[in-house]
Amino acid sequence: xxxxxxxxxxxxxxxxxxxxxxxxxxxxxxxxxxxxxxxxxxxxxxxxxxxxxxxxxxxxxxxxxxxxxxxxxxxxxxxxxxxxxxxxxxxxxxxxxxxxxxxxxxxxxxxxxxxxxxxxxxxxxxxxxxxxxxxxxxxxxxxxx
Length: 145
What we know:
Number of helices: 2
Order of helices and strands: HH
CATH topology: Helix Hairpins
Strand content: under 5%
Largest sheet: none
Shape: rod-shaped
Distance between the termini: 44 Å
Helix content: over 70%
CATH architecture: Orthogonal Bundle
Number of strands: 0
Number of domains: 1
Structural class: mainly alpha
CATH class: Mainly Alpha
Radius of gyration: 34 Å
């Protein structure tokens, strides 16, 4: 087996690893998008709820219930905001892993291409040597005749 063929096996393995990391990155990006959307929905709901409260005159009893609800809603927003930050960190780490995997694949591919070029160069020299030997034999045979 030629060196370039052995290198191709390594390139294929590296490419598979890169593909796995890319899938994980896509999954993390989808999770981030979902978390961001959920946060925005909570914020929109809080704003809508606050706007409706202003339109209604609330009794002291309802005001207390309202305040408890608003506090829980704000806690949910803060928790979701923290989740978004964690998801963003995960995407950043996944992106770095993918970049490293991509660089490794490119490096392996470059080495394989280098091996192919070296093999072609060696084959070309061998062919040229055979052509020269054939030409020399033909020349010497003509000289003997």
